[in-house]
Amino acid sequence: LEYLSSCMLSEPVISLVNRLISPLPSDHDKVVFDSTVSESNEAATRMAEICIGKFEVVALRQSWHGMTSETHAWQYQGERKGHSPTFPGQFMLPQPNAYRSIFRHPDGSYDWKTELSYRWQMIGQASGGSLAACIVECVQGDGGIHVLPDGYLKALKSYCDEREMLLIVDEAQTGLGRTGELFAFDHEHVVPDILTLSKPLANGLPLSAAITSAPLNTVCEQNAFLFFTTHTNEPMMAAVGDKTLEIVLGCGLVNQARERGDQLRDGSRKLQEKFACIGDVRGRGLMVGVDIVGDPNSKEADPGLAMRLARGMWQLGLWCQLQSRAVFRIGPPFNSSCEQIAEGLRIMEDVFAA
């Protein structure tokens, strides 16, 4: 069957749920399926609103969580312009930008703890007392491949717990192995209150999920939580998602992403040593960002140079997507071979040297 009513379950849906929750903490066994991460993120915040009884949402600068009116209100990128007013009760944390942040220790290293504390103090002053949830990506895919520093996610969970907020981790881009762990939050050994998944869940077909714990689900049920769309629980999408998970879990693709990601990142850093226009190389697993600058001292981004480099690589058969004005977002397929990664790095070097 391609389609059933949203209130019906089918064998593919049940099989997908069982496979999806098997690697998660034992109490995270309640799943809501939809089509896009916009829907699943909105479902997640509605769960938080129901459970906490409040409505304010905190997100990171340069985040990307969707294109519905509510999810668009949490993300702080240029696409906000012309789409005002947004939903009330939205607050922004600084982007964890280790390369450009003004918060520094005396030795010049990134002082994210002071930065995070300072901003939470400001949110406390601005909030109307209705903080419900904080939503975060462990690696900002559309925001320039900024990885949360070690300890950041644990600190964020502590800030949420202190304020009786829920932590939502959006793994639309990082989930199911791309960072070298099945879930990006596994790097930090932090379990979010709610997890959302999308793009890789059905290998690019429209399937998303919001996953939470049995205790939170009980509160939702007691308070008449409701969220569904026309395509909730579609059997065909569930069957594809179930097969995708079977392959990811059974064919060593997570280890493959870790190994090829190390190769790609190490190779990009060797290019950085040769070419001054590469200001920073960052990432995790098969999510790598190469930051193009006009001046390595000022760290000023150079979008014009980045575009010329992108065109040069395209002409030689390598597609490198530009994000955040001048950052190459490089995310090869999980099954990329060692030889293919090496060829891509060779093309990059040829173009940078031209």
Notes on the protein architecture:
- 38% of the residues lie in helices and 18% in strands.
- It has 354 residues and is an alpha/beta fold.
- The protein folds into 2 domains: 11-250, 3-Layer(aba) Sandwich (Aspartate Aminotransferase, domain 2), CATH 3.40.640.10; 253-353, Aspartate Aminotransferase, domain 1.
- The strands form 3 sheets. A 7-stranded mixed beta sheet has the order 1-9-8-7-4-2-3, with helices on both faces.
- A hairpin with a 4-residue loop joins strand 11 and strand 12 (300-301).
- Helix 1 (11-21) packs parallel to helix 7 and helix 8 packs parallel to helix 10.
- The longest helix has 22 residues, at 253-274.
- The chain is globular, with a radius of gyration of 21 Å.
- The N and C termini lie far apart (54 Å).
- InterPro entries: Aminotrans_3, Aminotrans_3_PPA_site, PyrdxlP-dep_Trfase, PyrdxlP-dep_Trfase_major, PyrdxlP-dep_Trfase_small.
- Belongs to the class-III pyridoxal-phosphate-dependent aminotransferase family.
- Keywords: Pyridoxal phosphate.
- One of its GO terms (cellular component) is mitochondrion.
- GO terms for molecular function: pyridoxal phosphate binding; transaminase activity.
